[in-house]
Design brief:
Helix content is about 15%, strand content about 30%. It has about 190 residues and is an alpha+beta fold. The chain has a single domain, classed as 3-methyladenine DNA Glycosylase, Chain A (Roll), CATH 3.10.300.10. A hairpin with a 5-residue loop joins strand 1 and strand 2. The chain is globular and about 40 Å long. The two termini are about 25 Å apart. The model has no long low-confidence stretch (mean pLDDT about 95). It binds a DNA duplex (13 and 13 nucleotides) through strand 3, strand 4 and helix 5.
DNA sequence: AGAGCGATTGCCT
DNA sequence: GGCAATCGCTCTG
C-alpha cells in the first residue's frame, strides 16, 4: 500500500485496498510482530458515525491531516483503536483496522493480551484486541505508518470477489452505511 | 463545571 | 443475551 493510493482513493476504496496489507510492530526488545489486515471499516466526515462529522477537535485532528498516518483513539475508558488516515489533507477520513491474521510474534501477542487469548483466532479479532496484541496506544497517534516501530508493509491485494461488505459494527448513527469490509471466509475477523 | 456516553471486550447468568 | 469496567472527549448550562 503506497501513500499515493491512500490519499487518492475514496475512503471505502482505501478500506478495500488495505485488506491483505501487513501491519508490522517492532518492540523495544526487538520483537517483531506482524499481521495481515483482514477486516476494515471506512469513516468519512460527511458520515454521522465519523469522529470528524462535527468538525475538527483536539482529539480528531490527526484524522484530518495527511494520509498514511495513524489515528489512535481511546474509547470506553480502556481500549485503543487504530485507524489509517486516508484522503487529501484537510478532509477527515480514515480506515479503522478491525482485525488481523497473526503472522509473526504470536507468543508475544499472547503475553500482551494478558493470556486472555488462548487461540490464534482470538488474538487480533477486534479493533481493541489487535492494539492490545501489538502494544499500540496513544503514543502512536500521529505516527507515520512508513516508519518503525509501527508500519505498513506491502502485501498481496485482495480481489473484490474475495471481499464481503456489511454494515459497520457498534455504530449508532450511520448504522446502515455498508462500509465494513472483510476477507470472505477468513477465520480471523471480529464477527463471523 | 459536570453529566452523558462511546468505531469494545470479557465475564456472568 | 445482558452488563460492568473505566476515562476523557464533547456538549450543555
Amino acid at each position: 500500500m503506497h501513500r499515493k493510493h491512500l490519499c487518492e482513493l475514496k475512503v471505502d476504496e482505501a478500506a478495500r485496498a488495505l485488506l491483505g496489507q501487513q501491519l508490522v510492530r517492532i518492540l523495544t526488545d526487538g520483537s517483531r510482530l506482524k499481521g495481515k489486515i483482514v477486516e476494515t471499516e471506512a469513516y468519512h466526515e460527511t458520515d454521522p458515525a465519523a469522529h470528524t462529522y462535527n468538525g475538527k477537535t483536539d482529539r480528531n485532528a490527526v484524522m484530518i491531516g495527511p494520509a498514511g498516518y495513524a489515528y489512535v483513539y481511546f474509547v470506553y475508558g480502556m481500549h485503543y483503536c487504530l485507524n489509517v488516515v486516508t484522503g487529501p489533507e484537510g478532509t477527515g477520513e480514515a480506515v479503522l483496522i478491525r482485525a488481523l491474521e497473526p503472522k509473526e510474534g504470536m507468543d508475544v501477542m499472547q503475553q500482551n493480551r494478558s493470556l486472555q487469548a488462548k487461540t490464534p483466532g482470538n488474538m487480533c479479532s477486534g479493533p481493541a484486541k489487535l492494539t492490545q496484541a501489538l502494544a499500540i496506544d496513544r503514543q502512536f497517534n500521529g505516527h507515520d505508518l512508513r516508519s518503525s516501530p509501527l508500519y505498513l508493509k506491502e502485501g498481496k491485494p485482495v480481489a473484490d470477489t474475495h471481499i464481503t461488505r456489511s454494515t459497520r459494527v457498534g455504530v449508532r448513527s450511520g448504522a446502515s452505511t455498508p462500509w465494513r469490509f472483510y476477507i470472505k471466509g477468513n477465520a480471523f475477523i471480529s464477527k463471523p
